[in-house]
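Morning, I've got a small favour to ask if you have a moment. It would help a lot if you went through both lines with me. I owe you a coffee for this, so here goes:
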Amino acid sequence: MIHKLEADGIQLVFDGRKILSGIYIKCETGKITGLLGRNGEGKTCLMQVIYGSLSCEKSIRFDNVSQPKAFAQPGLISYLPQFNFIPRRLSLKRIFSDFGLDYAVFEKKFPEFVSRYRSPLNNLSGGERRLVELYVIVKSRSQFAMLDEPFTHLNPLQIEKVKELLEEEKSNKGFIVTDHMFRHIMDISTNLYVLANGRTQLTKQREEVEMFGYARL
């Protein structure tokens, strides 16, 4: 069964400045929805609105059912924020146990983690810590996952493996992904939106990314 997430009717204003006002975005299971936009355009705010952690006038629907606080519905949506969210003192063993994931599968894909099962996050580099947090969100048991700057601090080889992982996992969920490394987003996206001036534009062709003023390809 294909599940659908839709967001529109969003009115978000900070200090008299309208941040989001002409939004429509749709994501379906089995697809990766890319979201591009310059710094300060409101990409993170949009994800927080969809997740339900940022309040404003909005319409967030999952399979046509309104879910204003989607994060409170088990198995509905997971979210990777820009910042580290797992306490540094926790060990990889504890993290993978809490998320119900098989560490052996993880270390097979990322052999740099072999024999580090009992290591705390505090012993990992910034890129390794980001990779662990990204992995558990991608593999989480939810219909949808949103990833905010997932490639931050990763090396080129890790980025390519993460892109492969997303392609594999999209059979299990729908993804909304944004990152300033826009070419990686364009590589993996089934649908691609550009956020500019508080509005989303669905691109039909890659050339439209440049037309909408986001970047020169």
The CA atoms of residues 88 and 123 lie 8 Å apart. The helical segments are 43-51, 92-98, 103-109, 126-138, 156-169, 182-188, 207-211. The chain has a mean pLDDT of 92. The domain at 32-55+68-190 is CATH 3.40.50.300 (Rossmann fold).
